[in-house]
Amino acid sequence: MTTFLPTTDGPGGTPAPRAVLLDMDGTLVDTENLWWDAEVAVFAGLGHALADHHRAVVSGGPMGRVGRHLIEATGAAITLEELGPLINAAFLTRLGDGFELMPGARRLLDELAGQGVPTALVSASDRAVVDVVSTVLGRESFTLTVAGNDLRRNKPHPDPYLAAARGLGVAPEECVAVEDTLTGVAAAEAAGCQVVVVPSVVPIPPAHRRSVVASLTEVDLRYLRGLWPTARAGEPAGPL
């Protein structure tokens, strides 16, 4: 299902991708259920039951979009400014009970770090949440982190991925982004990144410059470099 991007190795023969940009919730850590549980609990406290079909709409979304949708859908008597902290607090409480990494995530992070590949964590979640999760994953796993409230515009706008590439000193077109939701895919593709998708809540089809895998167990540095044809036919992209 891989779709190849017609490009070459990076400047000076640097193997592509020059950086890997990774989403957090549902991609590296199994937290999409925790977010939904937190949202359900908060709205239950407000006297409203969230229907399951709302989950596909809010999955992977930034707090502003999630909150606006759920308030409009339920008619809950709460403002967006009041709702966000409640959901974040409920989610952080659930994080404190522990969470699992997605299959293949630890191995991929260790391989990227071991090979010296610049890596950014790019999340729609707030900074407080990103800091907790990135600490558990290991701060050494990421060259930098970008949280949803670090910028004026969050996913599905390209700003988080553009900021990550800029912070790593590489062009977005030389990066591969790893995502699990349509919201994140839209952001990464709008930034110009090659995208690898590991769908979590809703199916996502392959497309130009987008490949789809069942889990991160299928993804390693050789796979990521294979998304770029070599600069010169018959020559390897670079050492693995």
UniProtKB/TrEMBL annotation:
Gene3D superfamilies: HAD superfamily/HAD-like, Putative phosphatase, domain 2. It comes from Streptomyces bohaiensis. It comes from the Bacteria. InterPro entries: HAD-like_sf, HAD-SF_hydro_IA, HAD_sf, PGP-like_dom2. Pfam families: Hydrolase. This is HAD family phosphatase.
